[in-house]
Amino acid sequence: MALDDPPPPPAGSTGPGATAAALLPLLGGPANLTSVTNCMTRLRVTVRDPSAVRHGELRALPGVLGLVEDGAALQIVLGPGTVAKVAPGLARHVEEPVTSEALAERGAVLRAEHTARNATPGKLFLRRIAQVFVPLIPALIGCGVVAGLAGLLANLHWLPALAPALTACASGFMSLIAVFVGYNTAKEFGGTPVLGGAVAAIIVFPGVSRVTAFGERLVPGQGGVLGALAAALLAAYVERQCRSRVPEALDVLVTPAVTVLVAGLATLYGLMYAAGQVATAIGRFADWLLAHGGAAAGFVLGGLFLPLVMLGLHQALIPIHTTLIQQQGYTVLLPILAMAGAGQVGAALALYVRLPRNGSVRETIRSALPAALLGIGEPLIYGVSLPLGRPFVTACVGGAFGGGFVGLLGQLGDRVGSTAIGPSGWALLPLLKGSRGLATTTTVYGAGLLIGYAAGFVATYAFGLSRRSLAELNADRG
């Protein structure tokens, strides 16, 4: 008896259920069935492999009145009434071929389930915070690329007159990023955008150096984007309270003035100092993490980033990235997290090799790989690896090894960072900046990607598919 065959019905058993159970092994087992339908008297079955059907035993089976053969299509005559009862029992065992459309549908269902399951107040708040920074990503990328070009010209001593101009182009936005964060925060949280920007602008105003808070002189820019975020959140709250209480005739004058005054003073005498302490702590922690636990931290971060993306928790890292960029000139976390995408690419390549007869899934992989190489992994995640289950886990293993490598080199002194957030994969190359020269930084990052590819490939090739899954997926010759 084949491993996939159900146990035979007990001796002497009768009825539609017993007939269906007896038919199944004679038709080659569940894996051999592609469709089961019926008409008034006949059970119409299509099989993958006609040679696996035991025709003689089928004809001799009690209850079978006749058998009509036409290649992979069989008509089993059972008689009226009986066939209508046997067909549903047998149809339950039909295994649909796994196609790219089926995987995509399963991935969409999983994505919707995860979104619904994680719609908690805390996670929804993190998503709203992310929406504050997402519109800023194009400017961050553009200024990051220009900054990289300016650094390259300076290092090579080329066009010395142009380098300062490029630096100005790259630095202008970063010097006023707090204003943009304040504007977007108020817009996202129900305030007037320009009032959020006005309150956040206090943080970068040079005159704050004449203000003393907690016994210390404030420094322009102190608190950075975190301070701007907190200031604009407070401004949006104050504005909403004013609009609900101030008479309509006075609203146009009183509400903006009270909003700027209350939120502005709170920013100067509390939020800037507190946000500055938090920003400094984030920078110190990032330095400590790479100096003392770079390899282990990189392994964990690289391995857990895909699940964080799936759960929506990665959005909490956007303000941290932006703070590190503003404070240190680059974020050391992004190149490590980008290794998760490398593991995903390696896993997809392994599936491509392991599924030579599943043209549908291979086509999905081929179409999604170019984007994945540039750091856009969602088509592969939700179209291939997550619906299949195991490949998603083995992709995480690949990301862990890539992240561990980049973290280890950072621990040894070759730190790799990104001057902007947004892209990953090979698209991150123009934004790289590190503790050593550009050549060393690029080499470390590129080697990390290759290690992530290799580890994801090996883990998925060896453990990504069970024998049963491999047989099912390769059964589709589309």
Describe the structure.
It is a single chain. Helices cover 66% and strands 7% of the residues. Mean pLDDT is 86; it is low at 1-13. The protein has helices at residues 16-26, 55-60, 82-91, 100-117, 121-133, 137-156, 163-175, 177-188, 193-204, 224-245, 248-311, 318-328, 333-337, 339-354, 359-373, 378-388, 390-411, 438-463, 467-474; strands at residues 33-38, 42-47, 66-70, 73-77, 212-213, 216-217, 416-418, 432-434. 42% of the residues are buried. With 478 residues, the chain is an alpha+beta fold. A 4-stranded antiparallel sheet has the order 1-2-4-3.
- The succession of helices and strands, N to C, reads HEEHEEHHHHHHHEEHHHHHHHHEEHH
Structural class: alpha+beta
Please estimate the helix content: 55-70%
Q: What is the count of DSSP helices, taking H or I runs of 4+ residues?
A: 19
Low-confidence stretches: 1-13
Percent of sequence in beta strands? 5-15%
- The residue-averaged pLDDT reads 86
- N- to C-terminal distance: 29 Å
Give the strand tally. 8
In total, the number of domains comes to: 3
Q: Per the principal axes of the C-alpha atoms, what is the gross shape?
A: elongated
Q: What's the arrangement of strands in the largest beta sheet?
A: 1-2-4-3
Characterize the largest beta sheet: strand count, sense, and whether it forms a barrel.
Answer: 4 strands, antiparallel
Radius of gyration: 31 Å
